Amino acid sequence: MPHPYGIHATARIRAAHNGRTTTVPLLHHDGPFHLRRLRARGERARVRVLGAMSAPLGGDRLALDITAGTGAQLEVTTAAATIALRGSTTDPATYHVRIGVGEHASLQWLPEPLISTRGSTLHQTFDVDLAATSHLLMREEQLLGRSGEPPGHLTTRLTVRRDGRALLDQHTAYGDPAPAWDGPAVLGSHRATGQLLLVDPGLESHQEPRVIGDDPAEGQAVLTPLADAPALAVTAVAPTPALLRHLLDTALAYVHETPVRKGARAHEIRE
C-alpha cells in the first residue's frame, strides 16, 4: 500500500503437491512485485518475480513470502537485477525474504543480482525454515555499484533453521559506513560477491573445504561443508558479475560431479 515515506508491500507464493505434480495455488502480487507462472520443468513448478516499478527505494518496506508445502518442488527466479536506489527520503529500504520448505519438498531460489547504487541504503534479510527432509538451493549475488560508481550501503542477514535448529546465521555489510569492507580481508578490489547454499539430506558428511579459481585477480570461491548438517556453503568474490556467476556455477558443478551424495538424486538440485 502507498506510504508517505516509501512503499509497504508483501507478495506471496505458495506451492503444493496434489498427489501427481506441483501446483501454485497462491500468487499474491503487491507493490513492485508481479508474479508470473512459467512452464513447469518436470514436476517442478516455476515462478518468476517481475518488477513493476523502480524498487527498492529509500523508505520502502518490501517482503516476499515463499512456501513449498509437503512434497512440492518449486523454483523461483527474477526477470532482471534488483537495483537499490536512493529515494526521496534518507530512511533505509528493507527487503525481507521469508522461505518455508516442508517435508520432502524442494525449493530453488535463483534470482538475478542485487545492485547497490550510489547513495542507496538497503537492509536485506532472509529467514529460512526447513523441515528435516527438505532440499534447498539458494543463490545470492551482489554487485557493489554500477560501472565506475561507488556502492551505497548494503547489509544482508541470512538465517537458516533446519528441523527447528539453527543451521546458518550469516551477516555481511558493504559500502560506507561499514568498516574495512573493501580491505584485503573482505573484498579488496573486487566489486561482485555472492553466496550459494545447498541443503540436501543426501549429501555425504565429512567433506573437505575446496578453493575454486586459480587466479585471485579473476576471483575465487570457497566451498565449505557446514558442521553437523547435510549442507554446503559457497562464498565467492570476483571483479565482474559474469566471473562471479561462473565461480558459483563451477562450485555447484563440482558438487554434482564428485561423489559427495548418498544415492542419485542430483536432478533435484540442478538449475
From TrEMBL:
The keyword Cytoplasm applies. InterPro entries: UreD. It comes from the Bacteria. The keyword Transferase does not apply. Its main location: cytoplasm. HAMAP family: UreD (MF_01384). UreD, UreF and UreG form a complex that acts as a GTP-hydrolysis-dependent molecular chaperone, activating the urease apoprotein by helping to assemble the nickel containing metallocenter of UreC. The UreE protein probably delivers the nickel. Required for maturation of urease via the functional incorporation of the urease nickel metallocenter. This is Urease accessory protein UreD. It comes from Streptomyces lancefieldiae. The gene is ureD.
